[in-house]
Amino acid sequence: MRKWWWKILCLLLVGYTVVGGMLMPVPRLNILNETIRNLYFHVPMWFTMIVLFSCAFYYSIKYLRTGDLKDDVYALQFTNTGIFFSILGMLTGMEWAQYTWGAAWSNDPKQLGTALSMLIYFAYIILRGGLKDDEKRAKISAVYNVFAFAMMIPLIFILPRMVDSLHPGNGGNPAFKQYDLDSGMRLVFYPAVAGWILLGIWIADLKIRVGMISYKKDFDL
Amino acid sequence: MGKRILITIYILMISVSFASAETEMADTMRSNGKIYVVVTVLATIFAGIFAFLVYLDRKINKLEKGK
User: Fold this and answer.
1) How large is the angle between the packed helices A134-153 and A69-100, nearest 10 degrees?
2) Residue B52 touches chain A, beta carbons under 8 Å
3) Which of A3, A6, A11 to mutate to test the interface with B (most CBs of B within 10 A)?
4) CA of B21 vs chain A CAs: smallest distance (Å)
5) Nearest CA of chain B to the CA of A199: how many Å?
6) Which residue, of A100, A127, A137, B15, is most buried by count of CB atoms within 10 Å of its CB?
7) What are all long-range contacts of B25-30, with beta carbons under 8 Å and residues at least 24 apart?
8) Which of B23, B35, B53 sits opposite A22 (nearest CB)?
9) How far A69 CA sits from the closest chain B CA (Å)?
10) Cβ pair A62, A72 in contact under 8 A
């Protein structure tokens, strides 16, 4: 019943990222040196987070339209997995920054915007923990999730681009301008993004199915 | 005089070529073949993670069918 092909695709893409990301040629840049390979691992974490939060946003709106508690399970687990990937993205970014920007935390606009948006999503989990009634929790957290997603867009995509930032693609520049010069990196980067997004969806899928089992148990369906 | 300028330019060129050669990449590591050790370690970890995901997926599948 379950379709396996995209999971196999995910395995192939991430496997290719690990091997190709280490061995394929990269541009020689001072300061960055070989750490430019982090692009294949650090950046896709954020892409995955954005996709997962978008899915959560979709299911929150769907819940508000239908009132079906199953949509709430979807929204919750997509958000949980998104938070997991945001933590991975933040940690890998700080590790990378420590050795290239000179400090793990340099109050970079994008770091700050992302940290704020992570705090907003942490509050989603805390908000859910504070409500006992299923219907009420689902409704209030769905409304909150729409707000959280609406806050994430300016915090991550708009505000950091209006000021100078250490991140490439900020301070008025369109993203990926630097990498456009190097088509060799794209050969790994695009499959990497696709592979990591699929991995995020796979983990979310597992969590949703577990959530569904306990949901059915609770309601004796 | 002309000789001195030539020598200066020559030294400058040498220093420039040295500076560009100093950008450290993993060449040595590759020539020793040791980058492949890192690739193997990473591949092992990812094989482990994927094996675990497949195991979980199958287990959840069974639980869903058991209902």
Assistant:
1) 40
2) no
3) A11
4) 10
5) 9
6) A137
7) B25/A28, B25/A33, B25/A34, B26/A34
8) B35
9) 18
10) no
Question: Which candidate, A58, A38, A61, places its Cα nearest to that of A50?
Answer: A58
Domain count, chain B: 1
Alpha-carbon gap, residue A199 to A7, rounded angstroms? 8
Q: How far apart are CA A43 and CA B11, in angstroms?
A: 42
pLDDT by residue (tens digit) across A161-194?
788 778 876 554 445 555 555 778 888 999 999 9
* Domain boundaries of chain A, sorted by first residue: 41-183+198-218
Question: To probe the interface with B, which of A209, A214, A215 has the most B CB atoms within 10 Å?
Answer: A209
- Closest partner residue to A22 (CB to CB) among B39, B50, B61 is B39
Q: What is the pLDDT of residue A1?
A: 44
**How does pLDDT run across B18-63, given as a tens digit for each residue?**
555 556 666 655 555 577 777 778 888 888 899 999 999 999 988 8
